[in-house]
Amino acid sequence: MATTIQMTNEQLHALIEAVRSSAASAAGNAAAAATGSDASKSKGSFSTCTHKFSGARNHEDVEEFITNIVTYKELEDISDENALKGLSLLFNGIASTWWQGVRKEAKCWNDAIGLIREHFSPTKPAYQVYMEFFEKKQDDSVAIDTFVVEKRALLAQLPEGRHNEETELDFLYGLLNIKYRKHIPRQGVQTFRDLLEKGRIIEHNNQEDEAQPKGPLRGANRVERCTYCNFRGHTFEVCRKRQARDQTNAAN
């Protein structure tokens, strides 16, 4: 049989107040935990970031540094304010000295990124990019992947949207080594991916061909070549053309 618990009005009110107090306390703890979590995230910094910059005036180095720290900032959920404050931790050498002189000009994180690009990798005028692009053709020893990557990096310095991929392919195709152009017609590639895939096949075939024995076979299987008529199968001493020449000269 169930036991009936009787409570006075005072006891009932006390129980209700206790439940309310417990619920309020739990809600407060949850809010504090969330606030603490947000605060923890907002306190992220570059203190453990290993990407450093020493001030190299090189477009590729500058862009690599910027990409690395922007990615790190996003992954660590560092606020713009904390990122700007801690940016000096990432500079070495002349870059550190430069930052001390210009840091007041950076009012926000994007300002700082802009200053880095402006000072260490200023935008090249288009004519200079074109000069560098067409200055050098592909050397026989340069892999097609390396050549295409370097040329596309130059074109990336032009204002966005200046050329479509087809036009860039037209630019690059004429600079390719003849061993690629012989086997890859311009109309046979529509994208840089097509060009690279076909170029790698040619390189692979060339490597196999170079691995094959070259020249006359040695030892018993060696095929003689006449030094007079340049045909194989006989030597200078028994060359009929050479003998006929000698006979004609003797008769005269």
Rounded radius of gyration (Å): 38 Å
Shape: elongated
DSSP strand tally: 0
How many helical stretches? Answer: 11
Task: Tell me about the largest β-sheet.
Answer: none
The chain-level structural class is mainly alpha
Mean pLDDT: 83
Order of helices and strands: HHHHHHHHHHH
Which stretches are low in confidence, meaning pLDDT under 50 for 5 or more residues running?
Answer: 37-42
Helix content bin: 55-70%
* Strand fraction: under 5%
Q: What is the count of structural domains?
A: 3
Distance between the termini: 147 Å
Pfam families: Ty3_capsid
Protein name: Activity-regulated cytoskeleton associated protein 1-like
InterPro entries: Ty3_capsid
Domain Ty3 transposon capsid-like protein: 49-198
Q: Please, could you describe this protein's structure?
A:
The protein contains 11 helices and no strands. With 252 residues, the protein is mainly alpha-helical. 58% of the residues lie in helices and 0% in strands. The model is unreliable at 37-42 (pLDDT under 50). The longest helix has 34 residues, at 9-42. It is elongated. The protein has 3 domains: 59-120; 126-211, no CATH class; 219-251, no CATH class. It has helices spanning 9-42, 59-75, 80-86, 93-102, 109-120, 126-135, 144-155, 165-173, 178-181, 192-211, 240-251. Helix 2 (59-75) packs antiparallel against helix 5 (109-120).
What would you say about this model in short?
The chain is an all-alpha fold. It has 3 domains: 59-120; 126-211, no CATH class; 219-251, no CATH class.
